UniProtKB/TrEMBL annotation:
PANTHER family: CHROMATE REDUCTASE, NAD(P)H-DEPENDENT FMN REDUCTASE LOT6. InterPro entries: Flavoprotein-like_sf, FMN_Rdtase-like_dom, NAD(P)H-dep_reductase. It comes from Pontibacter aquaedesilientis. This is NAD(P)H-dependent oxidoreductase. Residues 3-146 form the NADPH-dependent FMN reductase-like domain.
């Protein structure tokens, strides 16, 4: 079974984007699409990094753990709120912390906002950063507007049927990219 890591990007008090993380975990697991783990940046509580992992003299156990979990994941979902048209510093910090680990890693983006546009302004800047470090960003997006009205604290959506339909398209696209990467890796190993 493929393995997906979901990064919960917000470290703010009262964050709402984590509700979407919980929803995606429930959706993937209940449909038995993949095994899932949440990488909650609030729990990691990283300092601002002064260098990427490969150049750290003495990386902490938390740094090693995060890196290992990204490496072991067949695909990654990043759930990020939009803050003033951009993504949180906590996310930029961990994206830049790794480099080779992102190479050709299928990454799907879900953006969240309290307003009507679902974080659509953050997609371009996050995609560009991931592209620069050679991650494989999945074409399907999962923008979610008015998160505070549409998901409860446990991640249950107000309109489950419509949300599940959109989530299925998003997750299936990630799974396709994960399978394609696995086939390409296998082919390269045989060469």
């Amino acid at each position: 079974m493929p393995h997906i890591a979901i990064i919960s990007s917000s470290v703010r008090t009262g964050r709402k984007s984590h509700r979407v993380v919980l929803y995606l975990q429930k959706y993937i697991e209940s449909h038995q699409l993949a095994s899932v783990e949440i990488l909650d940046l609030k729990e990691y509580d990283f300092p601002v990094f002064n260098e990427r992992f490969s150049r750290q003299h003495e990386p902490t156990d938390k740094m090693k753990d995060f890196r290992d979990r990204i490496i072991q994941a067949d695909g990654v979902i990043i759930v990020t709120p939009e803050y003033n048209g951009g993504y949180p510093a906590s996310l930029k910090n961990v994206v830049d912390f790794l480099y080779e680990e992102w190479h050709r890693k299928p990454v799907a983006i879900s953006t969240v906002s309290g307003g009507a546009f679902g974080g659509s302004q953050v997609i371009t800047s996050l995609q560009f950063s991931l592209w620069k470090i050679r991650a494989w960003t999945v074409p399907a997006m999962f923008p979610l507007p008015k998160v505070q009205d549409n998901y409860d604290e446990e991640g249950d959506p107000a309109d489950k049927e419509a949300t599940d339909k959109r989530a299925d398209h998003f997750i299936q696209e990630l799974l396709w990219c994960m399978e394609a990467k696995a086939k390409m890796d296998e082919s390269a190993d045989k060469s």
